Amino acid sequence: MRKAVLSLLALMMGAATAGCGIFGGSSEEPGDLQVYSARHYDLEEAFVEFEKETGLKVDFLFAEDADLLKRLETEGEQSPADLYITVDAGNLWAAKQAGVLEETKSRVLDKAVPARYRDADGAWYGLALRARTVVYNPDNVDPSEFDTENTYAGLGDPKWQGRLCMRDSTEAYTQSLVAALMETYGRDEAKAIVQSWLDNDVDIMSNDILLLEAVDAGTCDVALVNHYYLARELDDNPDLNVKLFWASQDGPGVQMNLSGGGVVATSDDKADAQKLLEWLATDGQKDFVGDNHEYPVNPDVKPDPVIAAFGPFSSMPIDAEAYGRLNADALDLLEEVGYE
Predict the structure, then answer these.
(1) Which residues contact 77 (CB under 8 A, 6 or more apart)?
(2) What three-state secondary structure class fits 34?
(3) Helices 172-185 + 89-97 axis angle, to 10
(4) CA–CA separation, 233 vs 235, rounded Å?
(5) Do β-strands 164-167 and 222-226 pair in parallel, antiparallel, or remain unpaired?
(6) I want to staple 293 with a disulfide (CB 3.0 to 4.6 A). Which of 79, 122, 184, 231 is the partner?
């Protein structure tokens, strides 16, 4: 009864606030599992398959990572949530620090998810990988123009004056990129890199689709985006005049992030929540990552053909602790230089 009442109230409240939404199960008859998810695109097929295979119904509450974490902390023992899914490794780390995730012991998960993509104590597991890298308009840019050792810093070269587009500072992708630069190069150098972008009159936009549209139209020559946004656009328009360039391949590699999840510590159905997490990392891995063109964490699952065509690349290590620990410093840095 507690689960049913709280699930219904939480889902109804979530649907009415903060751009949240639900699917799966029913608002009149809550599902067996309640998922708080910041990953709000192309989930339907994966979870429909899970429901078919297990008979368990899944309900969702969608919101931004930080908002969902705050909600879990506020709800405490009364939270209806069973599983928390995020789109940023720093938020996974923060959720563990806040004590809202159960330390899950699972041989299935340990086998499916390489150690570098999961918490050592089993509080969270990565499910999908995304790269934040350079895209460019091939009519206006020769890829030989990019700095192959530190491509991100290279975008501060005066030759890119008035030619750059980037994401706004409120987005976790931007914050974790800056945190990664701080961890790799130190705060002073990271600050100089961001300042150099501003000195080049970077055009800051609210989402990656706008960035791709601007590059395609020639409004911007170069942008930083998550790779899967380009893959999704190419699905709809194979003639899109945008190419991908893997950043910093002669240096530390392209910056990566994780979408992942963990069992909520206050869940009253931890066993089924763990079953869902295990399924997402194994039988459901292809469906979970494929529709959104993310890279699978499970080494037994191949990338889909669109992103496989982007070719191989080297990457920076994903440091969830650094992304989370340095998040506030990254925000301060962005504010200091006036990056909005």
Answers:
(1) 266
(2) strand
(3) 90
(4) 5
(5) parallel
(6) 231
Percent with pLDDT over 70 in the chain:
90
How far apart, in whole angstroms, are the C-alpha atoms of residue 146 and residue 248? Answer: 9
- Condensed to tens digits (0 to 9), the pLDDT of residues 176-204 reads 999 999 999 999 999 999 999 999 999 99
Instruction: Name the nearest CA neighbour of 271 among 28, 83, 21, 36.
Output: 83
First to last CA, the chain: 46
Q: Give the pTM.
A: 0.88
Instruction: With CA atoms as reference, report the closest residue to 112 among 275, 315, 259, 301.
Output: 301
Is 70 exceeded by the pLDDT of residue 318? yes
DSSP SS3 for 44: helix
3-state secondary structure 136-161: ECCCCCCHHHCCCCCHHHHCCCHHHC
DSSP state of 254: B
Average pLDDT over residues 252-267: 97
Q: Please state the three-class secondary structure of 62-122 as a single string.
A: ECCHHHHHHHHHHHHHHCCCCEEEECCHHHHHHHHHCCCECCCCCHHHHHHCCHHHECCCC
Tokens (6 digits) for 79: 């939270």
Indicate the average pLDDT of the chain: 90
The Cα-based distances of 245 to 33, 231, 235 in angstroms read 40, 13, 18
For residue 270, what is the DSSP state? H
